[in-house]
Amino acid sequence: MSAQKKRNFKIEAFKHRVEVDPKYAEKTWKILEHAIHEIYNHNASGLSFEELYRNAYNMVLHKYGEKLYSGLVTTMTWHLKEIAKSIEAAQGGLFLEELNRKWGDHNKALQMIRDILMYMDRTFVPSNRKTPVHELGLNLWRDNIIHSHKIQTRLLDTLLDLIHRERTGEVINRGLMRNITKMLMDLGSSVYQEDFERPFLEVSASFYSGESQQFIECCDCGDYLKKAERRLNEEMERVSHYLDAKSEAKITSVVEKEMIANHMQRLVHMENSGLVNMLVDDKYEDLSRMYNLFRRVPEGLSTIRDVMTSHLRETGKQLVSDPERLRDPVDFVQRLLDMKDKHDKIISIAFNNDKTFQNALNSSFEYFINLNNRSPEFISLYVDDKLRKGLKGVTEEDVEVVLDKVMMLFRYLQEKDVFEKYYKQHLAKRLLSGKTVSDDAERSMIVKLKTECGYQFTSKLEGMFTDMRTSQDTMQGFYASQYSETGDGPTLAVQVLTTGSWPTQPSAPCNLPAEILGVCEKFRAYYLGTHTGRRLTWQTNMGTADIKATFGKGQKHELNVSTYQMCVLMLFNSADRLSYKEIEQATEIPAADLKRCLQSLACVKGKNVLRKEPMSKDIAEDDAFYFNDKFTSKFIKVKIGTVVAQKESEPEKHETRQRVEEDRKPQIEAAIVRIMKSRRVLDHNSIVTEVTTQLQSRFLPNPVVIKKRIESLIEREFLERDKADRKLYRYLA
What we know:
5 helical Cullin repeat like, three-stranded antiparallel beta sheet, Ribosomal Protein S5, domain 2, 733 residues, single chain, mainly alpha
């Protein structure tokens, strides 16, 4: 193939100039101006938008963009001034309707004009930094209509008047209001805010200030809160219907300030209907409304919380210091639990389970429960009552609920070691008398205490259960070894208790009947023969007995009595009449126990197997006692309890307190030594602080006692004072 010959092309300008008609711009603008007039006059149907677009395009192309733009401004301004006159002339309620209609017309016209001048909008406007056509139309509307001195004030007054009328119960045209406020928003956020929102908020503040004052003078707290809530909801609804969404936070803030924040103190303290009355009367709905309204304002919830805390502390203080309430420990604790349940329910239902309110409730309970130093004893007595009889026939789940509630009160105690002392005593009595309602419930309680306070707290309690199990095995072994010797004599059931685990006190000797003494000695010989290095001490004050008794007319009963009561009754096998002194001498039972024992046998109606002369409720040392032949009962088995104070007497209380204080000393000393071992040198105040921190889960140590224990440790050369600084203590390794 032969190579093709290359050709070079050259583009040259026209040989002649293209001349534009000097009057072209003017003629074209007249066509476009006429079209704009027709659009505003609603005669756009006869226009050729394609031809108009081409004319505008050519003007811009031929560098007449400035003429086109300025002509547009002039023409639109003229039309808007005419529109302003029309709006100004509208009377009464027609004013907003005319404004809305003209706004709609202007927007339609603006859309058509923008379509015609689209090329100018895309090229001339940005390159010459002009305002786009649509935005220009809005600005001209703002300046010539909205900011017209005859329209601006009238528009604001009309809008505010309509809102006021709606607030006072009238029905207004919300659709029209929405269109007008949307127009203001479309004109720019500053127009909406300056021309409407700011005055609207000022007027609203004034309105709600007056209304709240009026309401608070004539309404109770609950009704006032309902009105405030309704007003708040109305304003939020108003915003959703015809105001800018951003106005919601502002207008609700106004309502909150004027109707809630300014009247908080008066509302919560309102006589006969304030917060305290709501709490007392369980007004969950009103309380919930107060919580939801007050949480919207600064310091609102803290105001409710402070009043609730003050009320709780005052009520609790009255409860724990009321002498009438202290007579019945079970009722005392039950009232505390009811009070806790009541306020837990309020916090759950009305206060949205708010943790800060729960904390306030807890701190209040901790405050007033510890005002009464008998609270640990009473809580233990409550558990004792429930685990003896109060939980019979109750499901396992319900038992757990009761125990969990008790543990909740236990956590508030500062002297948990005092509770432990009493609980150990009460548990011992339940186990030894076989009166516990359920071993599972007993173990569940111990597990809860162990979880709360650690193994050391419950080790002795668990030891008590171990002793009970071991005792059963021991008794089986004893009777197996005595099989050939058992006859019609008394049957013995012994619980062997480890000294360190049980709260046993040194028991005064009691003269057991000869029949019983024989079998007791057999058991002693068996036990000491099978266990080396042990010593047995009979705790006759803790035992029980079942004895068969025959009364007049051959009536037979089986009496369930204490060991002391058995010793007394067995004396009447050989005597019809015995004086108090004779009984005391024969049994050697301590006087206080003997009087309670005789009181139970002779003074309790329906259980009086003995008669007393003279008849009275109390036992005197010159009283005489007779076997009551005339005793009758519809039951074969008759249980005769011991008349005993449910609570400790003052001497017993003092003795328990002393034992607690003695038990605390080694714990405080151990804590001091632990701290000083790790820190080596420490000042007095720091030792007190750290000891308190370490021991507060069991009790709050007294700083005076801590100081005495430090002195004791210095005497025993565990610590010494620093020679350079006497306020410092040094650990001696």
